[in-house]
């Protein structure tokens, strides 16, 4: 046998042995042959509410996310969001609602604005794809 075949065989046997060891040593509460649990069977039972009625919540629901990424373009003229001139705060807010951003950066775009915008998008937790226009 060649070295490649021997290495592939050793890898397959090692992976199979590892899967077998995991399967036989895991701590399952179900026994072999038991039917799968019905939906909601593994959840904790609901507790009866006692006491006062719930009060008005102060949290505000976020607006629903729009499908697709918001499209940002940065060039020497400034920052635009889908053709509309915007500042960094507004761009980040709209992209956060959209859930993701696509940033097209022109070669003549100001580097300081690019860094500030990208940093603000990262800080807001908005996944961003940067591309050349």
Low-confidence stretches: 59-65
The whole-number mean of residue pLDDT values reads 76
Strand order in the largest sheet: 3-2-1-4-5
What share of the residues lie within helices? 25-40%
CA-CA gap between termini: 53 Å
Q: How many E strands?
A: 5
In terms of quaternary structure, what is this?
single chain
Number of helices: 3
Element-level helix/strand string:
HEEEHEHE
Write down the Rg: 27 Å
Beta strand %: 15-25%
Using the alpha-carbon principal axes, give the shape.
elongated
Question: Which structural class do the helices and strands define?
Answer: alpha/beta
Biggest β-sheet, characterized? 5 strands, mixed
Overview of the molecule:
The structure is a single chain. This protein is α/β, with parallel strands linked by helices and 133 residues long. It has a domain of 62 residues. The chain has three helices and five strands; from the N terminus they run H-E-E-E-H-E-H-E. It has a five-stranded mixed beta sheet, with helices on one face. Helix 2 packs across helix 3. The longest helix has 23 residues. About 5% of the residues have low confidence.
Outline of the structure:
The chain is an alpha/beta fold and 133 residues long.
Q: Keywords, please?
A:
133 residues; alpha/beta; five-stranded mixed β-sheet; 3 helices; 35% helix; elongated
Secondary-structure map:
Elements: H1 3-25, E1 70-75, E2 78-81, E3 84-85, H2 88-98, E4 101-105, H3 111-123, E5 128-131
Parallel strand pairs: 1-4, 4-5
Antiparallel strand pairs: 1-2, 2-3
Helix pairs in contact: 2-3
